[in-house]
Amino acid sequence: MSYRWILMKISRVIGLLAVIAFIVPMVSATGIGCENDRPVGLLSQMDGYGTREFFTITQGETDTLLFNVPAGMPFLNVDLNWFTPDHSLRLEIYRPDGSLYGSYYDNYDGYLNGRIRVDISSPASGTWSLIVYGESVTGTIMYALNCNAYV
Questions:
Q1: What is the CATH number of the domain that holds 117?
Q2: What are the Cα distances from residue 110, in Å, to 82, 104, 113, 116?
Q3: Model's pTM, two decimal places?
């Protein structure tokens, strides 16, 4: 075996690993999205109180995401970010009892910046529903959803 042959094999393995590292997160994020207007499931809560996950959405698509707020949390922050005002998403937040907390658009905070941030004081404990709607989207776009309950 020559030195050149070994380097060629190593470079192929590295190339394959790079492709896998690039494709797996994209497939995972796309797979979490919901095209049938059904609940996707609970957002992962790594530290028990918060999460940040990435999803994709298209024009007219609705993603329903769930977030559990533990009892005794004085503050809940929901931050939807799609990184550009070139598209428009809508966020609806529902309390654990199913009642609508609010419906929000990009300019909710007075800025057209591709982001919706909502702070909720004294949130009820239980599972909150977060519905993201692709109101004006060209193609498929990625968005990040951050949910944090603070002590």
A1: 2.60.120.380
A2: 16, 12, 9, 10
A3: 0.70
Question: Cβ distance 89 to 137 under 8 Å?
Answer: yes
The amino acid at residue 86 is: D
> Is 90:104 a contact under the CB 8 Å cutoff?
yes
Tokens standing for 6? 């070994």
Could you list the residue range(s) of the whole structural domain that residue 77 is in?
33-150
Q: How far apart are CA 63 and CA 142, in angstroms?
A: 12
Question: If you write DSSP's letter for every residue of 15-34 in order, what string do you get?
Answer: HHHHHHHHHHHHHHHHHHS-
Please state, rounded to an integer, the average pLDDT across all residues of the chain: 79
Name all contacts of 106-112 with Cβ < 8 Å and 24+ positions apart.
Answer: 112/85
Please tell me the predicted confidence (pLDDT) of residue 30: 36
How many domains does the chain contain in total?
A: 1
Query: Does any domain span residue 91?
Result: yes
